[in-house]
Specification:
single chain; 360 residues; mainly alpha; 2 domains; 2 strands; elongated
């Protein structure tokens, strides 16, 4: 009887067996513990993680461009990374120049005559006559007085200082994003090596295989996010310019697309800014209701149609799973959770796929 000799054809078989024969309970315990640890850290640090997440995701998306330029030009990484950073900062500056005057103009108009703006909105919605609601008679002036009084009471209660604090934190976070992005772009290989070092030596082969399968899918997901942003910008411009005929439609559309990257808060801020412009330019209640209809259709098309389909297809996740990930991530971890919800779901899926050797 001949004894099988070790040779080049034996190693792949042995490697496949090592990945195939896995005790599910033994393999899932570290995964569950790791996911739980990551969730706990995200929950405790969610207040400071947003700039890091934005900078890291942007650097990850730009990494193939930097590698391509380095391969073509034979330049070191740092000058190419700094050029990419300069291009990103230029695009952000252009957006600020286009959108900031519109935002400041609407804010100044609102602060200068808050009661008049609210009264105009109420008169456009309910007209000059009175309406009866639950036994109370309301008209535009009375509703305006109640709304303005509630806002004044809210600001007098110390909430204005909270809003100012949020604004200062947002300004600091905006500057921090660019500093962190520079580090992530320039030192990406060293940061990746550090993350590999955090994995226990006995699990590094598994982590490497998971990352090899996760990397292309994750990039397709972020490309899907870019598609959603492009759709939001285009749809907003068509609605604001062609349907509603608002001034500054291009700036408002660009603002809508960029803010779409920030879940919940971004779309809400874009809708408020565009709504202020629409109310200011509205001649009748029909114009205001037309904007409300546009805003509802835009949000439904993004949240329930384009977003789940595009992101689910790019990430190989069912649209229902994508919707659940966004909602669960936002409920548990806020904005950071909504940004990282789908990538974490993909990480778990790819890890289980590698452990069980099933097709992703």
């Amino acid at each position: 009887m001949s004894v099988p000799q070790p040779g080049p054809n034996r190693e792949p078989t042995r490697e496949r067996a090592r990945w195939t024969v896995v005790t599910p309970a033994r393999s899932l315990v570290p995964l569950v513990l790791a996911v739980g640890a990551v969730g706990l850290v995200l929950h405790l640090l969610q207040g400071i993680l947003l700039p890091f997440v934005i900078a890291a995701v942007t650097a990850y998306v730009c990494a193939p461009l930097i590698d391509w330029v380095m391969a073509r030009t034979r330049l070191p990484r740092w000058p190419v990374a700094l050029c990419v950073l300069a291009l990103l900062m230029g695009a952000a500056a252009l957006l600020v120049l286009l959108g900031l005057p519109v935002l400041l103009g609407q804010a100044q108009s609102l602060v200068t005559d808050l009661h008049g703006a609210v009264a105009d909105l109420m008169r456009a919605l309910i007209g000059k006559h009175s309406v009866h609601v639950l036994g109370s008679t309301l008209d535009a002036e009375r509703v305006s007085d109640q709304i303005v009084g509630a806002l004044q009471h809210w600001t007098n209660g110390g909430q204005l200082l909270t809003v100012i604090g949020w604004g200062a934190a947002a300004a600091f976070g905006f500057m921090l994003v660019w500093v962190l992005m520079g580090y992530f772009l320039v030192d990406a290989p060293a940061i990746a090596s550090g993350l590999r070092w955090l994995v226990p030596p006995g699990r590094r082969a598994l982590a490497e295989q998971v990352w090899q399968e996760l990397d292309p899918i994750l990039r397709r997901y972020f490309v899907g996010v870019a598609v959603v942003v492009a759709y939001a910008t285009t749809a907003a411009y068509l609605g604001l310019e062609l349907l509603l005929g608002l001034h500054h439609a291009l700036a408002l559309a660009l603002l809508t697309g960029v803010l779409e990257v920030i879940p919940v808060i971004g779309p809400l801020a874009a809708a408020v800014v565009a709504g202020l412009v629409a109310v200011e330019q509205a001649a009748t209640a029909r114009d205001i209701w037309a904007y409300v209809g546009y805003a509802v259709v835009l949000r439904l098309s993004i949240d329930q149609l384009v977003g789940p389909i595009v992101l689910g297809s790019a990430a190989r996740l069912h649209p229902v799973v994508v919707i659940f990930c966004f909602l669960a991530g936002g409920a548990l971890f806020g904005i950071v959770g909504m940004i990282l919800a789908v990538p974490i779901a993909l990480l778990v899926k790819m890890t289980l796929s590698v452990l069980y050797r099933e097709a992703p």
